[in-house]
Amino acid sequence: MRTWRSACAVFGAATAFGMIGCAAPAEDENVHETDLAASASINGLSAINGLSAINGLSAINGLSAINGLTSTGVAGGVGLMNSAAGRATVAYLVRCALPAGHSVTKKDQKGNSYTFAGQLGFAPEWETGTCGATCQEYISACMMAHVNTAGMHIPLWLDSSAPNVGWGQSSSYPLQEGSFFGNIFVSPPKAYYCDGDGFTGGSTGVVAGRINAGATGIYSNPFGDGVLCKNTAGALAYYSAGATEPDGYTQLKYNVAWKNVVTVWRAPTYTPNFDPSYKYSFYALNTRAAPLLVDVTGGKMAPGTKIDQWPQSANLASSQFNVLASGSYWTIVSAIDNTRCIDAGTGQIGSIPTIQKCNGASSQQWIFQINGSGYGSAFIQNVASGNCLESSSDTVQGSAIDISDCVRHSWREFWILGSL
Taking the model in full, what pTM does it have? Predict the structure, then answer.
């Protein structure tokens, strides 16, 4: 029977989890709780400290598989501990490695202490000892299972041979997304996945999309584009009593037999949560050949400045936003000036949203309606008018973003989300 661990939730978790209280930190102004989605069954690690852009965990300064996490397995004051992205990586490492009730405290370069809580317990031996091959493979699979380059927190159900995780299926999570295996501690990293049959697979499928496989060149399905795990040679599946589909796999075979596999299941629909520490960008699917991002015209934060589209390749700060909770909804806040929000105004069809002083009005509140099972795509609907953001041009930089009725089949209203 599967053992399922749950932990304190710092974010409003999806309804499958609810809110669970967190223990208060010690009364020390330099001690901080990690500000992340704290349920181990919610992904949202935008990139493993830039793992989508670097050569795996072996290249990260301050990380050691030889020493325990409580000693110098993660070194204090250097490497991972010196940036918010690095500390996010540590949080997920500890969450994957240690069981609930265990934690690690580390300091950054300024002497501030951060406490990271365990959750799943894939590699409890790493708390005080060496992270050997089995540990490295389980941590690698767990970390990959939690990557979501859109930066959204999505509820997951995990299956694995690991004793603290185990097997079982849930009617709340009926769709098998895929399985992860490999070793990202080695150089070059071995970061593999194969598709489940619950979602569209392949290079444009859900797994490849959420880990940004095509762009990074790190993650791959070594069995071939869209090949399902259950159809691979040498796969050993585990079935719970009465199950017609495998819970997951005790082995997937690519060059060697990988026995430390993590399988991810998903719900058919979910309510996304955004990380307030991440910066996000948005482009409409109609511009996908050369993405045009939502942008504040000229980077000017004066109230009334129109929202336009500008090439992603320009890498402008005016095309970067925080997505912050506003009651049950979200505000889209400029990363340049956190007092400036995207405002739909009257929200009439054909009108152009502008940047305005953040005031909590419903014209500045948005609903992200996830497009089916997409890994990072949504219709962005204004609360006041019920209408949606729309791209007005496929190719013209500087063309306006406008408001349209939410027809839900137009690529102009279909926004691809990415975290920076």
Answer: 0.78
